[in-house]
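From: lab user (bench 3)
To: helpdesk
Subject: output format question, protein + coenzyme A

Hello, I'm new to running complex predictions and I'm not sure whether the block I got back is the full result or only part of it. Here's what I submitted:
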Amino acid sequence: MGRTVRVKSFELAAKDINDVDVTLLHALSTGVGWPHRPKDWDFLRRAGHGIVAVDGIGRVFGSAMWFPYGREFATIGLVITSPRTQAQGTGRWLMEQVFERCGDRTLSLNSTDAAYHLYLSLGFTKEATVYQWQGEAVSPPPPVPALDGELSPLTGNIQEITALDERAFGTSRQRLLALLSEGASICVLRRGGETVGYSMKREFGRGHVIGPIVASNDCDAIHLTAVHLKDLAGKFARVDTREQTGLFADFLQQSRLGMNDTVTTMSKGRRFLNRKGNEPWVYGLAGHALS
Ligand SMILES: CC(C)(COP(=O)(O)OP(=O)(O)OC[C@H]1O[C@@H](n2cnc3c(N)ncnc32)[C@H](O)[C@@H]1OP(=O)(O)O)[C@@H](O)C(=O)NCCC(=O)NCCS
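Helpdesk reply: Thanks, we reran it on our side. This is the complete output you should expect:
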């Protein structure tokens, strides 16, 4: 595969995403209407790896990032081509560069409509729809079912949630959780002395994201979300979930957040989403790129 791609009069080459100024990345995401702040890009650069497509004088025309979890799996995100160079092969070339760097890992991503056919043609298959709920959190949040267990802030070590998260996510993301926890409020649900769920709230984009939300059933997930929505009353909140029906989806609908957009979870390699009975499950995503 070529080390450069020619689009119109530009020849673009791949450069490590850490070697460009964050203002250029921010301009790229703003240019396609995404809410990422420079701080969000900085966080993502700490959490994963990435490349940018630059021309001979250092202008950035595209980006792609990947977040490896061990040797088996990685998520992909922040795939962007600047509007003036779209539909000329840069997106495909960026993805091929990412494939080369991810080896034979199973790959998963959350595709926008704009990118869906590109990913299909690159061998990804559809697994699920992600619903993006967002808006001003109202006070009080909608009624919640009876709580079974005790909710409390996680004040100690994130070790308490890493094994639970691995069962829900399918692979260990201990390092990512440690990074996320630096700027997050974390709530845990314990029942009978066991940790059965957790949720994080952290600043992102226009306000706060509630996610990851990990629970074994809809009622637990509702409590783990409501506790943060209560704190965010009057502020911008966002929840990304694959739940389309059921009590948790109903709760989000009643929360008066609006359903802003959908993206499609796709994978290449082994299947990524494997929900099992009453096992823990990711009710809320950490973010589109992080899944
Ligand atoms: C999605 C995106 C990255 C694609 O980048 P790109 O540089 O335009 O992609 P390419 O030129 O390599 O095109 C890839 C395929 O997409 C399709 N495509 C791209 N733009 C298209 C357009 N305007 N009309 C029709 N098809 C189009 C083509 O089918 C093309 O397939 P081909 O290689 O067989 O011709 C770019 O549109 C973008 O940044 N969109 C906004 C951000 C976004 O949604 N990112 C995806 C996150 S998951």
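A quick orientation on your result: The mean pLDDT is 96. Let us know if anything else is unclear.
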